[in-house]
Design a protein that fits this description.
- It is a single chain.
- The chain contains nine helices and ten strands.
- With about 325 residues, the protein is of the alpha+beta class.
- The chain has a domain of about 200 residues: Ribosomal Protein S8, Chain: A, domain 1 (2-Layer Sandwich).
- Helix 1 packs across helix 3 and helix 1 crosses helix 8.
- The longest helix has 23 residues.
- The protein is globular.
- The two termini are about 30 Å apart.
Amino acid sequence: MPRDRAADVADILVEADLLGHDTHGLHLLATYLQHIEAGQMKLEGEPIVLADHGAVLTWDGQRLPGPWLVLRAMEIASEKAKINGSGTVTIGRSHHIACLAAYLKRATDQGLVMLLLSSAPGGGSVAPFGGLRALFSPSPIAIGFPTGDAPVLVDVSTSITTNMLTNRLRKEGKRLAHHWLIDETGNASDDPAVLHAPRKGTIQPLGGLDAGHKGYGLALLVEALTAGLAGHGRADPPEPLGASVFLQILDPQKFGGSSAFRRQMNWVAQACLDNPPRPGFDRVRLPGQSGLLRRERQLREGVALEPSILPALAPWAEKLGVAQPAAL
């Protein structure tokens, strides 16, 4: 992979681990290496411009590295936002884009608002609410915005849990904390094995058995903004570990003004923090707050890797002649 692209992929994977999203950081690296070796991730070339209408741009990502594509799209969307107030880039046929939260701080540090949505058209593990057959991916939605203090960083799936977590727990012989899955007969389950052949279970939409219609609606929103606007999705032949992406940058200065935006969002953020905690909670936190504190600590002390990561990378290190990092 060209050095600049490799650096972008590395930055985003490590940033995910810094923030504590350890299923979507270096945990993904072994899979990415497999896809490179199999020719399923394209390393050279540029995205194909399918449409460019000033504030709106659409790419065919040609299965180029997802983090590199998203970071390039962020640069373009940010420039468009500073001119027009809003810049939007949609990408079809990207390779996997890793952890959505890992991108947000780059926008909020500039005083910008960022929305990032992703779907995986080649895979399905989430049934529509009321159904039994897997159709959607966990399809995350992320938003970051500045306040008068630390930014708010939201990254949530439209499903109640993720493929990465359930796969990890299955390999470790563990179960989920709650009955977040349904088996092939529609019964709730906490056993990740129901998602894997010969079983045909699915992950529940966000909201679960009682309110999963909400996650179902959000999943449809993601499909419309990603696959629909990019023009590539589930109606096309499936490709392994790919993504359709919607990325939008907003510049508050072009709306009511940056100062007004920060004043409003700082008030809301402080009101959340000052809210009295219910039993079982020591205090109310803002989305991303714990991750940013963890990030600061790990930048000082080193990144704590989930135990399965280095063993998964050991065969690749040996094969490629790369020394594994020693523990601090």
